[in-house]
Write a sequence for this structure.
């Protein structure tokens, strides 16, 4: 049968649901162990953060798509949470292998890391549902009717009040940690990445400016530029 | 299987990007 946008979206959603059937909406035993091994156990903070983000997401989804669609917003959020846990576990396993450590207390108590990872997981879900186009008007953090009409990237950044620069940081590791992502989804994430690098990260208020300033000052004092810089 | 360009080196990971060692 001919490929249509609806057929493509249905295939993509089926693949996502299939991939997430074995992943629960709670941390797996392995992930819970990583949490317990932390100097400061992040379990409760993770749970509370997800509750708050879930409410914000469903509410904003309803505002953007229509009040009768809040239930669909909750459904997408639920899939996003499963993907978030699944990818977090894969990332931690990979980091354990690379660094030979099991205590990821600092990373797992970093709220920005969790919010960025969740936002990326939700962007994957949204892309699977066929939201692959981008807003013409660009990023509008203040909201307003034109910006709230749809839920395309970078809508998710506004929902969670997340800096594009921080979202950018998780994209590559996310793709590496999730071998189930389809070519189209990877392409979508790459488009998000390019949009951030070329436009969004350079807007007023971006943390990138302060970081560049710090980097410049540090570099001048040391007179040495390391490859990592 | 896809043409995504990976930029992180083998010794870099999510921990470094969020300033954790």
């Amino acid at each position: 049968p001919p490929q249509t946008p609806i057929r493509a979206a249905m295939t993509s959603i089926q693949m996502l649901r299939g991939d997430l059937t074995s992943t629960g909406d709670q941390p797996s035993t392995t992930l819970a162990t990583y949490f317990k091994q932390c100097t400061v156990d992040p379990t409760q903070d993770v749970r509370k953060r997800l509750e708050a983000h879930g409410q914000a997401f469903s509410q904003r989804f309803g505002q953007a798509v229509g009040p009768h669609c809040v239930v669909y917003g909750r459904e997408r959020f639920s899939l996003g949470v499963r993907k978030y846990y699944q990818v977090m576990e894969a990332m931690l396993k990979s980091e354990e292998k690379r660094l030979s450590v099991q205590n990821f207390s600092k990373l797992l108590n970093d709220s920005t890391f969790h919010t960025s990872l969740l936002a990326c997981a939700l962007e994957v879900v949204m892309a699977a549902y066929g939201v692959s186009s981008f807003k013409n008007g660009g990023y509008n953090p203040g909201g307003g009717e034109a910006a709230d009409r749809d839920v395309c990237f970078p809508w998710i950044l506004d929902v969670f009040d997340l800096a594009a620069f921080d979202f950018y940081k998780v994209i590559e590791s996310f793709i590496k940690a999730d071998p189930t992502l389809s070519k189209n989804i990877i392409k979508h994430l790459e488009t998000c990445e390019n949009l951030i690098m070329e436009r969004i990260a350079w807007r007023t208020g971006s943390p990138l400016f302060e970081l560049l300033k710090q980097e410049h000052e540090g570099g001048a004092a040391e007179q040495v530029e390391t490859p990592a810089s | 299987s896809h043409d995504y360009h990976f930029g992180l080196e083998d010794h870099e990971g999510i921990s470094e990007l969020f300033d954790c060692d």
Observations:
- Chain B touches chain A at residues 1-2, 4, 6-8, 10-11, 13-15, 17-21 (CB under 8 Å).
- The mean pLDDT of chain B is 79.
